[in-house]
Specification:
224 residues; alpha/beta; 6-stranded mixed beta sheet; 6 helices
């Protein structure tokens, strides 16, 4: 009887202990950029008049909250007209945080455009070799989460990725010119799905799940 009481007491004690909420995102410093803005609309859905810039902003704001809830420190770039200035702003804001260091990663969120109202797909763009693990992590998470045609993770000197010597990537989650995507955005479902996918991709990156081709670890990119 005493053994049963003791076993029950220990079980209840263990269950009463706080469950650790530590994640790979704890202590990370992430810069987010909502593509376009400042008068630039980006791609526009003709049927619903949904501007890419607005979609980008919706995703970035929701993603910021989700990342911060997981322990990350997040800054959002000012929507300046110059991409170089936006990167400078990200660097400045990261150094102004309590962590006071270089941004661990920069993710610039975009949504693609096409002359077709039915074309769709997911694409991630990177520039430097050091960006590959982040690009892979985001790309795989978006493909899994959004379940759209695979347009690859591609090397290209585009936009934000060429400045500041930061680990960075550009995401093109889907084509906002696709009428179905615009409808899903307007009814509120697509933002949540994309935010979860981007969150999963960043968590995977910082978990160190993505390697360089020569075997070196790609994740765990917390700058000191």
């Amino acid at each position: 009887m005493k053994k049963l009481f003791l076993s029950t007491f220990l079980l209840l004690t263990i269950l009463a202990l706080p469950v650790s909420s530590t994640t790979s995102l704890d202590g990370t410093l992430i810069a987010l950029d909502a593509g376009h803005g400042n008068g630039a609309t980006g791609a526009v859905n003709r049927k619903y008049q949904v501007a890419e810039a607005d979609v980008n902003w919706s995703v970035v704001v929701a993603l910021q909250q989700k990342l911060e809830d997981a322990g990350a420190t997040v800054v959002i770039t000012e929507r300046l007209s110059s991409r170089r200035e936006r990167v400078k702003d990200a660097i400045k804001k990261c150094k102004a945080t309590e962590l006071a260091r270089k941004c661990d990663v920069l993710v610039s969120v975009h949504h693609n455009g096409s002359s077709s109202s039915t074309h769709d797909g997911t694409l991630v763009i990177y520039n430097e070799r050091k960006d590959i693990p982040l690009a892979k992590a985001l790309y795989n998470a978006l493909i899994e989460g959004l379940k759209l045609p695979d347009e690859g993770y591609l090397h290209g000197g585009y936009g934000m990725t060429v400045y500041g010597n930061m680990v960075s990537a550009i995401t093109e989650g889907y084509y906002i010119t696709n009428d179905s995507e615009a409808e899903q955005y307007l009814n509120g479902t697509r933002v949540a799905e994309e935010v979860q996918a981007l969150f999963n991709g960043l968590a995977s990156y910082f978990d160190g799940e993505y390697d360089f081709d020569n075997g070196n670890k790609g994740g765990n990119g917390k700058n000191k």
